Amino acid sequence: MLRYSALLKDTKAYKTLQSDISAGRLNHCYMIMGEDELVVDGLIDLSCEAILCKDGGCGKCVVCQKIEDKNHEDIFEPKNLKADGIREFVEKVYVKSEGNIKIMIIRELDKIDPKVQNFLLKSLEEPIDGVVFLLGAIRQSAVLDTIKSRSKKLSLAPFTKRQLTEFFDDNYIGKPKSLVEEAVDCCLGSLARCEDLINDEEYFGDMSEVIFVLKELTSTKVNLKMQKRLDLKDGRLARYLDIMQLICGVLLKRKSGVHVEGFDRVNVLLDSFNLATLVNFNELIMQAKEKIESYCKDENILDNLFIKMMEVKYLCR
Ligand SMILES: [Zn+2]
């Protein structure tokens, strides 16, 4: 059984594909689009099962097992995403398949150079009987319009908190319930993020520290004392900055009246910063992230960031 299959089968994208199959109207090309790479990837495998398994994707038969082991004879993927890999892949479209249907998969179409994406056009323009393309994309803007217009789009929305909670209630994954609940609460509907959070037991402790420090961002003196709470050992700064950016993003949405599910832990900061301050914070955090890449000292980056945050908070008050 594919991981998360119950959750993936609960998406509108999967249900659309399923109704195409049962109505005998399978399209020659589907583009699976979403921000969550884990879900895009999983849905591609699940779609293969739905198309090739005679029980519509039972997850148990030989066909489904081959798909999960990635060795089904009628499924092709490029060996790389460069010109030679895609050229060789396209040639396979015309090779006779073992069964009635052949599936051509590109999981990360958006990572292919637009010039190389062009190689696919001919086989998409003149569909061949028994050949189905499944294309995955995270960044839709990086996909050629000519490919988009020849595909049936299956868009993936973030999961709701209820969907994720029900899934983890039904499927024990060997982690404490409280950790899973925290991860569901802070993943903003992304399964990939939820999984990262579940596997990172120090994350929520770090997040509490960052919230505490932001709450105490009042005067330079207090600020310096607070900063000491953030331990900068082994690459921790990048992680603190990610958390800060996430928190500011959630606050920004909430203050602009955009509904954000979960993340109630940041509400203690709602009255600490106004909209203008948060917009500026986001900018400052991004600048700090760039500095990490230019090998500035972590302590200096953090000092500098806090001083600037204090300034912004004062100027935007
Ligand atoms: Zn099956």
* Separation, N- and C-terminal Cα atoms: 54 Å
* Secondary-structure element pattern, one letter each: HHEHHEHEHHEHEHHHHHHHH
The number of helical runs is 16
The number of domains = 2
C-alpha geometry: elongated
Q: Which kinds of small molecule does this entry bind, naming each only once?
A: zinc ion
What can you tell me about this protein's structure?
The chain has two domains: 151 residues, 3-Layer(aba) Sandwich (Rossmann fold); 114 residues, Zinc Finger, Delta Prime, domain 3. Helices cover 53% and strands 7% of the residues. It is built from 16 helices and five strands. The chain has a five-stranded parallel sheet, covered by helices on one side. The protein is elongated. Zinc ion (ZN) binds next to helix 4.
Task: Give a short synopsis of this structure.
The protein is an alpha/beta fold and 317 residues long.
Output the keywords.
Rossmann fold; binds zinc ion; 16 helices; five-stranded parallel beta sheet; 317 residues; Zinc Finger, Delta Prime, domain 3; 5 strands; alpha/beta
